Structures are given as structure tokens and as C-alpha cells.
Amino acid sequence: TALSSHHLSSLQPLCSGCPVSIFFIVINEFCERFSYYGMRAVLVLYFTYFLRWDDNLATAIYHTFVALCYLTPILGAIIADSWLGKFKTIISLSIVYAIGQAVLSVGSINDLTDHNRDGSPDNVSVHIALSMVGLILIALGTGGIKPCVSAFGGDQFEEDQEEQRSTFFSFFYMSINAGSLLSTIVTPNLRATECGIHTKQRCYPLAFGVPAVLMAVALIVFILGSKMYKKDKPQGNIMLEVSKCIGFAIKNRFRHRSKQFPKREHWLDWASEKYDKRLIAQTKMVLKVLFLYIPLPMFWALFDQQGSRWTLQATAMDGDFVVLNFFSSYVRLQQIVNPILIVIMVPVVDSVIYPLIAKCKINFTPLKKMTVGMFLASMAFVAAALVQVQIDKTYPVFPAAGQTQIRLVNLGVVPATVQFQNQSQSMELAPKETTGYMTFKTSQLQSLSIDSGSHNKTEFLGNLLKGKRYTLAFKSLDKIYSNWLLDNITAKPEEGQNLIRFINNFLVPVNVSMDYKNYVVLPPLSVSNYSIYPGEKRSYIIKSTIDYISCTTLSKKFGFGSAYTISVDSCPAYSLNVTYYEDVAPSTVHMAWQIPQYFLLTCGEVVFSVTGLEFSYSQAPSNMKSVLQAGWLLTVAVGNIIVLIVAGASQLSKQWAEYVLFAALLLVVCIIFAVMASFYTYVDPNEIEAQFEEEKKEDKKCQDNHEKQAEAVSQM
């Protein structure tokens, strides 16, 4: 004979009054959250810098993926409650999840299609296909197990173990935050390393591979505890019951729409012919809360842009941050700020802010808290817009269609005068001086003349191309030597990297290298190709060999997102003299300026998200909490879909304008929500359910009396 679930649970090994099985569940959750958030931390960078999608497409696919992750929990809940049960659902979908992570990792291997070994995939569509298949499987896995794991952990306790259950949930949510925080530190740094068989690239296979391994570990750990778990059989899904009840009420109301049928107090009362009053009353309570959910997706539309727009914003900033030097890669600040602030702000808000508000005798209801949370998120995007305006000021201006940019560099030791034909004003250039880039209409360029020392030279400009940048480097010795350099930079360097090239200011060939890499031999006045150096404020050793004499010097600190042309000028006493010409200015807006927007958004999250879940649970019947959980997750999914719609429809060319648009939309929604909340009446579901229990007892009592009377009559 099979043992009952209660008997099985009583035989479970205990540790500090808790079933040992829950430790397997907590470890499983830590590994799963590490896997998910670690992968997500580098996902938009993978889209942008590996798959070479533009910012808008990368943002769109990122939010589509996140939306899918929050739509699939409904599917997972239905499978668990109606078919497989929680344990088998977690096992099955975890396997799907781990396969998805592995497929994504394989899809990010550059050498998979790099047959010509030039450092870029020959067939990007293969990588895109594998990545999309992997992400779909991940979305099915993570979303499908999301509603099951915490509930399965709660199932391990008896009804009289409320304190132990509460301790479990504290550990459970701590494991979520720990996994999230650790992964957002580790995986971006794994990505920052270089790996590859033929050419070294950002190591996305490792950044995605480690989360895949952690997901496999999560699955193994969960299976190891199998014999200790209390496994309840599927009881049927209440979401399906609620959906059927609503559907029947609508259908029945439509059938009886003519005036001859009397109106009922509530449209759900039309389901009373088929469903009992208790289910109808519970559904009414749930729908009241779900109605309040309608404006909530707008909050998540802003909140989840931390992983897309704000991540890309950070790549255009100065990342010289003390704490980041420890983590070795500068884009990490914005990925660890939110988890750290959450850990700090939750106890501060609960223990300090709310009690202070209560002492001021302000009735700070849950719905008022959520309204404040939405307002704070709106202000966070205003802060992001202000930061973006400052970033935009640092971007270089490139030639538009029909324009050409020219920069003049006097490499000589005597002053020079330059005059463009059809321009009355001439330009004076001191030794080693540059003009910076000047913009001309290409069609109007004819020639320019250079006077330096006792020499003169005319340069014809008719061959310069539209939409290009050029540098004219010249020097006067026995005559004027000059060379036109095509500056083939069309945008600010990616990910805060620096582009460095050298120009030979000798009249003999020189050998140049930086940090003993990228050796190049340069003929007189010629320039090397740009080499990529990581974004960081450090010096490099520049070495040059001229006529068998080696000279060295330490470079300047380049910063983040810059491009320089370095002129190799002279070598007195084995010390190399160089001059720096700025092709693209480094990023000057410090990443610390993102902290205010993260602080505002995190405060908004604390008073919105935590309060929202608490409010939902307090206003829902005990057997309908899964319905509201699904509804809450659905608002996150819809929020990410809103990002796709707004970003696609707005067609705004400036990123700061898009931030302002989102801030304005949330502010409007915040006002609407405040009005809706003012009409809401708080209820006590337990009280209402108790009334139904009393009515049920009364009905049973009456039925028993009738049966006794009928029995008495039959005996007469």
C-alpha cells in the first residue's frame, strides 16, 4: 500500500526543523538564477558586437526574449497543475533549459563558420539561427519552471510549519539575489577575456558556457534530492477554472441580452447556473485586482531597459571607476548596481522609511506606494535623458552626404600657412599643431596651398570622396613633404575601446610597436592601420627602431572610446618623442552619473514590485494566488512588448528624446493608476471565505434537519 503524502513528509530528514529536501531546492534556485542572469547580462552586447545588429534591433530582440520568459510561466503552471505535477515539470523543463543554454553557447563560437580565419563569421545566419533556437528553449525552460520551484519548496512543509516555511522563503529569495549578483559580476568578465582557435575574440562561448554548466548543475542537484521530496499529485489548474467561469458568464450574458431578462448585480453572476457562488465571489475579487494591473506594464517597460538601453548607454561613458578596476572590465558597474541597491534599500525602506511615514500619520496604503514607485521610475528616465544629453555632446561629428572633412597636421618644426582656394582667410599652424576636422561641401573643394619656411606647395582636392574624413600631414625640410591619410573611422569606437595608429615623421622607415604587439614597419610620412586597445586609463610602452637604434617611451592614458594618431618624431638618447593627434575624443561623461538613475529606479522597484506582490496576495483568495502570480508575470511580459512598440513607432533619432518619451508615458499612466486606485475598496478574502464557510455549515445544518424530519415522518 502506498504511503500517504503526510506520512511520507513525516519521515523526511529534518535540519533545524526544516526538511533537508529544501536545501536541494535553494541550491537549485541559486544555480538557475546564476545561469539566467549571467546569460542575460551580456546578451544585448552579444547581439550588438558579435551578431552586428544595430542598437534598435538588439533592443527589440532582447525585450522579445524577456517578454517570452514572462509569458511561459502560465504554460508551466498549467502543465504542473493539470498534467505532470511540479516535480516532473521542473525536471522536464530544466532539461530543455540546459539544452538551450548549450545551443546558445555553441552559436556564439566564432570559429564555427570562420573558414577564412579573418576574425569574423563567414555565415552569420548560422549563428543567428542557433542563438534564436537557444533563446527560445531558455525562455520555455526558465519561464516554465518559474511558478513551480518556489511553490514546490513550500509544498515540503506541513500546515503547522509556518515559521519554517517563512525561513525557507527568506533563504529562497536570498539565493535568487545571490545568484543574480554573482553572475552579473562573473559572466561579463568571462566575456571580456579573449578566446578562439584561429583568432582571439571576446569570449562569448565562455560567458554563455558557464551559465549552461550552472544550469546542468542545478538540474543534477535537484534530481539528487528526489527521494526526499514530498510530491503532491496534480490537483487541476485553478486558472483554467477561473477562465471557464469567466467564459461561461460572458456567453450566458450574451444569450440573455434582451430586456426581458432581469439584470444581475454583477456580470459574473451570469455564471451562477453552472458554477457555485464561492468560485464566482473569488473570481470577482481576482478580477478587481487584475483590473488594477492594466496600467502596470508601463513600469516594467522602463524597468527592463536596464539590460538594453542603459547597458548600451554605459558603453559610451568614462568607466574609470575604482570598484571596477577590481572587476577588470568597465561595463560592469551598471550590471551590479541594481542588485546591490536592492539588498541595501529593501531593509532601509521597511525598517526606516515606512515607520517614519507611519509616525507622520500618513495613510501610506499599498496602492499609494505603487503610485510612488511608478513616479520614481519615471524620474529615473528623466535622469537617464539628462545623462544622455551630456553623452551626445561628446560624440564626434562625421561628414554628412555630400560633405568631406579635412584635418591639417603640421609635422614639421617650422610654422606653416595654409589657404584653401576660394577662401580669403588663411590658417596659421605652429610646429606639431593640427586644425581639427573642418567640414566642406565636396563639390566646392578645388585646391589648397601650403607655405612653410621658404617653400610652397599646392594640393589638389578634386579626388577626395564624399562622406569621408581625411588628414593632410606635411612637413617642411628641403621641400614640403606631404601625404593624404584616409581616416576610416565612421563611428565612436565600440564598447569604450581605443583605436590607435602611428605616423612616421622620419624620412627613413621605422619599426613601431605598442606593448610589444602590433609590430609595423612604416615608410616616411605613412600611417599604420588602427589597432584596438581596451578601454582603460593605463599607459603602454611604445617602442620604435630607427636605423637600428631602439627608442622607447610610455604612452599617455587613452581613456575610453578614443582614437589617436601618434606621430613618431625623434629619438634623443634612446628616448622616443611622440605627438598625439586626437581623431576621436575619449568619453568624458563619467559612469558614476548613471548611479542616480539606478538609485531612483531601484527605489521605485522596492516600493512598486515588493508592495505589488504583497497587495496582490492580501487581496486574493487562498486558492487563487497562482492566478494573480500569472497575472503579475504577464504585466512584465506586456511591459517588454510595449518597449518594442514604442521604440519602433516613435522613430526618434535622439536617444535622450526616447527616454523622455518613456518617462512622460509612465507619468501619464501613474496619474491614471492613482485615479483607479482611489476608487478601489480593500477587502479581506479570509473574511469573505469565512462567510461562505458559515453559509455552507448553515446549509448543511438545514439539510440535516430536513433529513431528520423526513426520517421522522417516514417512521410514523
Automatic annotation (TrEMBL):
> Which domain of life, per UniProt?
Eukaryota
Q: Name one Pfam family in it.
A: PTR2
Q: Which UniProt keywords apply?
A: Cell membrane, Glycoprotein, Membrane, Peptide transport, Protein transport, Symport, Transmembrane, Transmembrane helix, Transport
Q: According to the UniProt record, where is the region Disordered?
A: 694-716
Q: Where is the composition biased (Basic and acidic residues)?
A: 694-710
Q: Which residues cross the membrane?
A: 6-27, 34-51, 57-78, 90-109, 124-145, 166-186, 206-225, 285-303, 336-358, 370-389, 627-647, 659-683
Name of the protein this chain belongs to:
Solute carrier family 15 member 1
Q: Which organism is it from?
A: Smithornis capensis
Gene, per the UniProt record: Slc15a1
